[in-house]
Amino acid sequence: MNFEELLETRDVRKTTKVRLPYGYFYKRLIEGRYSNFVEFHDEVADHVAFSNCVRTEAADMEKIANKHQLHFVPNEGDGGVYAIAVEVGNFVTFEQLLNENPAVVAREDFANNTLRDLADLTEQLNEKGVYHVCFAPCNVLARKNDATVRLLCHGSFYAKLDQETLYDGVEDYVAPEVLAGGEIDARADVYSLAKFVVWLYHSSGLPLEWRLVISKATAQDPASRYQSVREFHQALINRKGMRRTATVGFAAVAIALAIVGGYFYMLPQPEDIEYVKPVEEPIPDEMLDEENLLYGLGADADSATIANIVAKQMRAKDSIAIDDKEMKAYQAKAEQIFRKQFTKEADRILSKVYNNEKMNLSEKDFMARSRSMTQELAKVEEELAKRSNLGSGRSQRIASQIIDQLTTKKMEALDKDYIGIKKNKTEKK
Asked: Closest Cα to residue 241, out of 207, 280, 264?
């Protein structure tokens, strides 16, 4: 192969054409610089009004100051405009981008930035009565070096053409009313952009929380869709935020249940003992005789002191002679003290995890702290039960109630927006 053949081969390689809805996009090396061209399809360019449509778009797009909007100059021939010369740059379609470098989707915020930039530019165009109409992967461009999005020709300038011919092969990305020759407005862009979102996530799977948003955006009836691209994009953002807060909220609830469940899993199974309701009022005077050493003691009394007194009196009296009511009074008093002391200790332990700072930790760290908390709660319960002279079955039941109540209160006290309990005004709508 001689030098001239090498150059010819290089030019052929560099002028590979990519099909767009309205023409072929290709690059040519001219005087040492690559230039971008779109050569229009004959069935499109032959329309009597086509040349005027291209000239009008070229003039109107010069007024759009947005780096994501590509500008061009019409190339005129004897039969009118046959091609356009696009601004300098290394551009590829999104279809090419993901085919050649599928890993680009894994880049941090790639999809989010793409949708944001498309929404911002489309909203700016819509405000001027310009609608892109078709966000097919072969009709959305990207700058190759950084994968940032670019748009070129917009469908609303070519509304007089036969729409089925113009969008042959990409009909799935065009709103049904457009193909039927109906009105083109922002809702057509909502439909098409939603279809692009589905395609963008086709390899990794569309986020579950977006499915209802996409379903509404692609409704057959334009009136049932979001009425603007901004509204559609905001719905995606809100749903994604709700997923994060809801996930954290559900995780917090699950962890709370796991703490209570794990707490009992670590303890020996208690015997079936009839549950005695907590004493709400002071022990009646008739249950206490003048020599009863428990007389006058309140809930603040040390549990060890109560246990010693009970043991002393039981040794001093014949066990058969002790009245059943009096024995229940002893047990109820001991239970009352256990409740107060365990509540205080459990509140201290649970507060180590259930606060806004700790809830913001990673799931791994949060679970580790939760396991440590469960072990500490079990240890405290066991120690207080012995000091209060309560049976293990009774103390475990009381501890379960207290942990459940405290956990609920602490979750309610957390930042409700953070754990997904309370929605903001936009989410409520």
From this structure: 207
End-to-end alpha-carbon separation of the chain, Å? 68
Q: Which residue has the tokens 């290394």?
A: 90
Residue 337 identity: I
Least confident of 15-29, 231-245, 269-283, 364-378: 269-283
Measured distance CA(210)–CA(215) in Å, rounded: 9
359 touches 252 (CB < 8 A)? yes
Tell me the angle at which helices 110-127 and 229-265 cross, rounded to the nearest 10 degrees.
Answer: 150
Q: What is the pLDDT of residues 98-142, one digit of tens each?
A: 888 877 877 768 999 999 999 999 999 999 999 999 999 999 999
- Kindly give the residue spans of alpha helices, DSSP state H, lying in 85-182: 94-100, 110-127, 163-166, 176-179
Alpha-carbon span 156 to 63, nearest angstrom? 17
Instruction: Give the CA distances from residue 260 to residues 153, 265, 409, in Å, rounded to whole numbers and listed in that order.
Output: 61, 9, 14
Q: Is the pTM of this model over 0.90?
A: no
Residue 276 has a CB neighbour count (10 Å cut-off) of 13
Which stretch of 16-30, 225-239, 345-359 has the lowest confidence by average pLDDT?
A: 345-359
Contact 175, 188 (CB under 8 A): yes
- Residue 178's SS3 state is helix
Q: How far apart are CA 102 and CA 172, in angstroms?
A: 22
pLDDT tens sequence across 20-52? 999 999 988 777 778 899 999 998 888 888 999
Taking the C-alpha atoms of residue 32 and residue 6, their distance in angstroms, rounded to an integer, is: 15
Helix locations, 201-323, DSSP H: 211-217, 229-265, 303-316
Separation in Å, CA 200 to CA 140, 228, 265, 302:
11, 20, 46, 66
